[in-house]
Structure formats: structure tokens, C-alpha cells
Write a structure and sequence with these properties.
The structure holds two protein chains of two kinds. By secondary structure, chain A is an all-alpha fold. Chain A has a domain at about 125-210. Chain A has six helices and no strands. Chain B folds into two domains: about 1-30 and about 260-280; about 40-245, MTH777-like (Rossmann fold, 3-Layer(aba) Sandwich). Chain B contains twelve helices and six strands. Chain B has helices spanning about 1-5, 10-30, 40-50, 70-85, 100-115, 130-140, 140-145, 185-195, 205-215, 225-240, 245-250, 250-280; strands at about 60-65, 90-95, 120-125, 170-175, 200, 220-225. Chain B is elongated and about 75 Å long. The chains are: A mainly alpha, B alpha/beta. Chains A and B meet through α2, α4 and α6 of A and α2, α4, α8, α9 and α10 of B. Chain A: Keywords: Membrane, Transmembrane, Transmembrane helix.
Chain lengths: ~210, ~280
């Protein structure tokens, strides 16, 4: 064992143990660490926003370099605060409308291209997919999975005839998807625990490298 | 019968302690369970491995925070080692405000293993707020979005950045992504609009969502969680690129035992539940 001489490693280890103490039951140490985290996070984000966003993108160009055009985004930003003045509160719609307009204009074509067109292309059975038997098999399973899942979510027609078994097959694919997601979630949580224990056993206690 | 029914009433503290032991013991006394490399990890490795010193730099976007560090930080280190071993230049940046501190740790540690020089072999652009706007802006001109690097040095004074204007000059973008903005934002704007090559490393929670993008060819490769990071570390070691500490691979014994134990608990819980229902 080779205990760390670094005070910040000790602080970090103490806070980690405070959070872990919740596994036994809710207690004062856990609440202390939780509140500390919330407070520090809020302060950190305010400082980061000032130094990385407001100061270089607004204060320097507008107030130090005298670039007048920056008054427009400044004024738009200020309009957000009209929410606190009931008579002027309607003005908040202007920056929100601008953001929604810009965001939709940028996002809709990109979303359509990325999530619909290319994903549909990826689902289609193309000759290249059958160059190897295993990739061909997966391509067929993928196509069957997509079609049966879409049919499961097709509510405009009563599930009779061919629609019923296909929708039931869709349920199987959906359940497989949920299972995979849950498995990965367990894996992620165990990974986070491993990361903390590696820290406690490594930099703090010096038991492992 | 009472014994079986009592299986559904195991105190949760006992479960936590058992899992903690299953994690701690293999970290101290490694078992050496082999790591099998998944095809999507191999794809990303191959995409970087086929690059060389004459290729444009690889852009690593570290879109994560300390919470996802155990999964994504080992990927960052492994990819940096791979690039430096192949003499590929690296650009680092973050779309998350909590990312730069973690990137700085890697910038302090990894380049010196390969005697690489800041400004010639790697550049750290820092954090920029805006997500999609940042990615779109970089597609036109990187120096308009990042006029200086993280340390305040003008981009044009860094040797490796003089020939880099936009995505056309970058070989590959790898987003180490813990959420939004992340690999999806890079796919939406850099890949679909500027046809940049994008790969990703994601937390295990979001891995299942990323697979369709590998299958469709939109992502050149995918590293999934700590397991994926360990696979990449194994590939880097297998090729003889680095003998450095492999944090994710060290955790794989613990990961496997943890999973095994959870499966056992799920089976025990279900058996207990099944018998208690039959009795009712």
C-alpha cells in the first residue's frame, strides 16, 4: 500500500465514499457531497459560460473592438430577460422565434438525410451485402426486423391475417432491442463503478497501478 | 420451499457488498480473461491504421464529462497512442464544457510517451459552445470558429494547423461521445453535409443506438463502452504500438465477474419469484 500524499486525491476519495454511503442508507455525508456537487457544477458552468461564450463572443468584439454589428445578438439576448417584466414579456418571442427558425432550417434537412435517407439505404438489400454469407444473412434479418417493427407500429388497420404474425414478430425484435439496451446499461453502470474503484485502489491507496 | 422464497428477499446491502467484492478482487488479483475484439472496433482501428504521416490530421472531439470518464478516457488515450505510433497528427477539441480538463490530462501524458511536440504533432482547440453551429462553422473554416487554441495561441502560429482549413483537410473525425452534442451531431452536420469521415466511441448506454449507423456505413467504426476501449487497447498493444498502462483492459476481469454475478442474481430473483407465485 502506498497512500497518496496529494490532498486533492484525499478530498476526491472522501467525496466518493460519501456518495457510496448512500448504498447503505440516506445520510448526512451523502447529502453534503450531493449539495457540494450541485453548487460547484452551477458555479463551474457560470464561469465557463462567461469565459468561453459571453466574453470572447460578445464583450471583446462589441465593447473592446467596437464592432457595432454585435449589438443585434446582444439585444436579442437581452430580450430573454423581458420575461421578468410582465408588460414586455411578449418580446421574448423574438429570440425564441429566431432560434426555432434557425434550428429547424438547419436540422430538418440534415435529420432527413441522416436518419431517414441513409438509414433506409442501409436497410435495403444490395448485392454487395451478399458477398459473404454472414453479412447477407444479417442484411435479411435487418430488413425483416425493420419491416415487422414498422408494422407493429402501424395502427391504421386491424391486426388480422398477415399483419398479426408480422406485428408479433416485430414485438420480438423490439424486445431484443430492449434487452440489448438494458444489457449495455448494466455494462455502463459496472464500468463507472470499476472506474471509481480503480481510482480508490490506484491513485488513493496505491494498491494497483 | 421457504429457502427458495427467501431468495426474493436478499437484502440489497448484501447484493451491493457482493458486487463490490466481485469488482475489487479481480482488480487486485487479475484473472486474465481474454478480450475478444468486436468487428466494429476493428473497423475503427483499421480506418486509423491505414492513415500515415502524409494523411491529414485526425480530429478527436471529446464530447464527454468526468461521469463517463471510465469508459471514454481510455479510448482517448488508446486512439492518441495509435495515432502517434503511426505518426498521424491529432487535433483535439470538445463540444462539452466539462471536456477540456480531461483532454488536458491526456495532452500532458500521452505525447511525451512518443516524444511528440505540441503545435507540430498535436493541437488542442479547446471548448466551443454551440454544438451544431460549431460543427457547421468548422466545415467552412476552422480558424473562424477557433481563432486560437485552448492556451490562447493563434492557430496560424501552430505549424500543423497551417495546412488545415476545414474538414477536407482532416482524415477522420472521431467523436468520443457521452450524449448530446456528440456523435449524432457530427453525423448530422459534418458527415451528411460535408461528407466528412466520422467514427465514434460511445458509452455503453448509448451503444445500441449507434449500431445502425455502422451498419449503414455512416460511421466508419464504433467503440462501445469500457469493453470497446479495452478491445482498442488490446489492438494497439498487439500491433506493438504501445506498452503503456491499459486502464480499460485492467477492468475487464472485474467487468466480466460483475456481469456474471448480476446474471446469477437475476436468475435467483426469477426462481424465487416463480416459486412464490406458484404457491399463491
Amino acid at each position: 500500500m502506498n497512500l497518496s500524499p496529494d490532498i486533492w486525491v484525499w478530498v476526491s476519495a472522501f467525496l466518493t465514499l460519501c456518495i457510496f454511503s448512500f448504498l447503505f442508507r440516506d445520510n448526512l455525508l451523502y447529502r453534503f457531497a450531493e449539495h457540494l456537487f450541485v453548487g460547484i457544477s452551477a458555479g463551474y458552468f457560470i464561469a465557463i459560460t462567461w469565459h468561453n461564450v459571453i466574453y470572447p463572443n460578445l464583450v471583446i468584439p462589441l465593447f473592446k473592438q467596437g464592432n457595432i454589428i454585435f449589438i443585434i445578438p446582444f439585444a436579442f439576448g437581452i430580450l430573454y430577460f423581458t420575461r421578468f417584466i410582465p408588460k414586455l414579456a411578449y418580446l421574448i418571442r423574438l429570440p425564441i422565434a429566431f432560434l426555432i427558425g434557425w434550428g429547424s432550417g438547419v436540422a430538418i434537412p440534415a435529420t432527413f438525410q441522416t436518419y431517414i435517407i441513409k438509414q433506409t439505404q442501409g436497410t435495403l438489400l444490395v448485392p454487395d451485402a451478399f458477398l459473404r454469407w454472414d453479412s447477407g444473412l444479417w442484411a435479411v434479418i435487418g430488413l425483416v426486423g425493420v419491416v415487422s417493427t414498422l408494422i407493429y407500429f402501424f395502427f391504421s388497420k386491424e391486426r388480422k391475417g398477415i399483419l398479426k404474425p408480422t406485428a408479433n414478430l416485430g414485438i420480438i425484435f423490439i424486445m431484443l432491442g430492449f434487452g440489448a439496451s438494458f444489457g449495455y446499461t448494466v455494462m455502463a453502470r459496472i464500468s463507472l463503478l470499476i472506474g471509481r474503484i480503480q481510482f480508490l485502489l490506484g491513485p488513493w491507496l496505491g494498491i494497483i497501478k | 420451499m421457504k429457502v427458495i422464497e427467501s431468495l426474493t428477499k436478499i437484502p440489497r446491502q448484501a447484493i451491493f457488498i457482493t458486487i463490490a467484492l466481485a469488482i475489487i478482487i479481480p482488480l487486485i488479483v487479475p484473472i486474465g480473461i481474454p478480450v475478444n475484439v468486436m468487428p466494429q472496433t476493428q473497423k475503427l482501428f483499421d480506418a486509423i491504421d491505414e492513415l500515415g504521416p502524409e494523411s491529414g490530421p485526425v480530429l478527436l472531439s471529446c464530447d464527454f464529462d468526468p461521469q463517463s470518464m471510465p469508459e471514454l478516457y481510455p479510448m482517448l488515450v488508446a486512439i492518441m497512442r495509435h495515432c502517434f505510433a503511426r505518426n498521424i497528427k491529432i487535433m483535439l477539441m470538445s463540444l462539452w464544457p466539462t471536456g477540456p480538463g480531461l483532454v488536458e490530462m491526456a495532452v500532458d501524458a500521452v505525447p511525451k510517451e512518443f516524444h511528440k511536440v505540441y503545435g507540430q504533432d498535436l493541437t488542442f482547440l479547446g471548448y466551443k459552445a454551440g454544438g451544431s453551429a460549431v460543427i457547421l462553422g468548422m466545415g467552412e473554416s476552422i480558424r473562424d470558429v477557433f481563432p486560437t487554441d485552448y492556451y490562447g495561441t493563434p492557430i496560424d502560429s501552430l505549424a500543423m494547423m497551417r495546412s488545415v482549413k476545414n474538414y477536407k483537410d482532416i482524415s477522420l473525425i472521431v467523436s468520443l461521445s457521452a450524449g448530446d452534442p456528440g456523435y449524432r451531431t457530427w453525423l448530422l452536420y459534418a458527415q451528411s453535409r460535408y461528407e466528412a469521415r466520422v467514427g465514434t466511441g460511445v458509452t455503453a448506454v448509448s451503444a445500441a443506438d449507434a449500431y445502425p449507423f455502422v451498419e449503414s456505413g455512416q460511421l466508419v467504426g464504433l467503440i462501445s463502452g469500457m469493453k470497446g476501449a479495452s478491445e482498442y487497447e488490446v489492438l494497439v498493444k498487439r500491433k506493438g504500438y504501445s506498452e503503456g498502462i491499459r486502464k480499460a483492459a485492467q477492468g475487464m476481469d472485474a467487468q466480466s465477474l460483475g456481469h456474471l454475478l448480476i446474471m446469477v442474481f437475476i436468475i435467483i430473483g426469477n426462481v424465487g419469484y416463480f416459486f412464490s407465485r406458484r404457491r399463491r
